[in-house]
Amino acid sequence: MNEQETFIKMSDAVLEGDSEALTVIIKKVIGEVDPLILVQKGMMPGLKKIGELFESGEVFLPEMLMAAEAFQEGMKIIEPKLQESGKKVESPGTVVFGTVFSDIHEIGKNIVITLMRTYGFKVIDLGANVSPITFVDESEKANADIIAISSLMTTTMTYQKDVIDYLKERGLRDKYIVLVGGGPVNEEWAEQIGADGTSDSAAGAVRIAEKLITDKKGGVA
Ligand code: B12
């Protein structure tokens, strides 16, 4: 099986919620292919497709749940490899990360967190359905550099703005770098709500986190 065929089989296994088939394929190729590529080219297309089928009413919540479960089973094998593959460096900083209030999507957040940890960041994972108060209180407790806020729905992305507004209310906006991300989030939205940056990929999220921290600390990385 060539790489392309492997990716198609992985994507199909996610789409069908077939954890067993997915883990068999991953175990076969895990030492040979970049683990991040396995996530991006193998598993993510399957999730994208199930999302489209859900939106058009061709599948329902149970199918989407099974696809998400298969994805997470696959991640259990890939994650340790992903962690090994990173550059181990002195910690660039501390990130407090969560998914917004009213939103339970966590898969993307978890991938970004794994990669950030791989690149040395200390990350405090607040989980999903996190209120603005919790984001800010936990960041204060952790003496964080970055607050990272994920949202996967058009109906919940406005809570990203609420976190920023609450920071302002407490007079803390300038203390933190605020990153936003997740399916419906783009540069325009990030700018509109006064976030410091966004990215639609885990690698991009790490890059922008490193850059903004270096800029804030006023110098060379
Ligand atoms: C998996 C999934 C689920 C799973 C979630 C499992 C879990 N534990 O996370 C389950 C089945 C539980 C679920 C539930 C629901 N879902 Co859903 N779900 C999806 C699906 C198929 C994939 C999401 C995903 O994980 N993508 C893969 C990851 C890797 O991508 P990502 O999250 O975008 O993350 C990447 C980047 O965005 C970025 N990133 C992410 N976060 C951050 C943060 C920062 C700071 C940065 C810099 C970058 C960054 O890096 C990541 C890695 O590349 C999407 C479809 C889609 N195309 O997105 C629908 C989707 C998001 N769901 C949708 C809906 C409607 C729901 C439900 C309301 C359904 C229902 N009727 O109950 C519920 C939500 C309930 C709630 N209150 O939250 C809709 C949302 C529509 C909208 N309004 O915008 C979507 C778009 C499907 C659709 N097309 O209709 N869902």
Describe it:
By secondary structure, the chain is an alpha/beta fold. It has 2 domains: 3-85, Methionine synthase domain (Methyltransferase, Methionine Synthase (B12-binding Domains), Chain A, domain 1, Orthogonal Bundle), CATH 1.10.1240.10; 94-216, Rossmann fold, CATH 3.40.50.280. 57% of the residues lie in helices and 10% in strands. The protein has 9 helices and 5 strands; from the N terminus they run ααααβαβαβαβαβα. The chain has a 5-stranded parallel sheet with strand order 2-1-3-4-5, sandwiched between helices. The longest helix has 25 residues, at 61-85. The chain starts with a helix and ends in a 5-residue tail after the last helix. The structure holds cobalamin. Cobalamin (B12) binds at residues 44, 47-48, 50-51, 54-55, 61, 64-65, 68, 102-109, 111-112, 148-150, 152-155, 179-184, 198-202, 205. Cobalamin binds at residues 44, 47-48, 50-51, 54-55, 61, 64-65, 68, 102-109, 111-112, 148-150, 152-155, 179-184, 198-202, 205.
* SSE string: HHHHEHEHEHEHEH
CATH topology title of the largest domain: Rossmann fold
> Level of helix content?
55-70%
> How would you write the strand order of the largest sheet?
2-1-3-4-5
**Bound ligands, named by name, code or SMILES:** cobalamin
The CATH architecture assignment of the largest domain turns out to be 3-Layer(aba) Sandwich
Number of helices: 9
Strand content: 5-15%
Largest sheet: 5 strands, parallel
> Which CATH C-level class of the largest domain is it?
Alpha Beta
Given helix and strand content, the structural type is alpha/beta
Q: In the CATH hierarchy, what is the superfamily of the largest domain?
A: Cobalamin-binding domain
Total separate domains: 2
Distance between the termini: 42 Å
Q: Give the mean pLDDT.
A: 95
Shape annotation: globular
